[in-house]
Design goal:
434 Repressor (Amino-terminal Domain); mainly alpha; 70 residues
Amino acid sequence: MTKDELKKKIGQRIIELRTQKGWSQSDLARACNKDRQAVEKLENGKVNPTLYTLYEISKALEISLGQLVG
């Protein structure tokens, strides 16, 4: 798997988990202290998130980091 493929896969996973909670991008952004544009870029695979960013998102979504990236 390439880096770009992995970024897109993680982005799709975030979209899936966020929509299961009925959250908008703005809702997720507020829950993890990011701005909506940062969430949008992450979901679209445009940025390479840090491990800490993924941790913040997993905490906001109330899942483990493994559930987010696994």
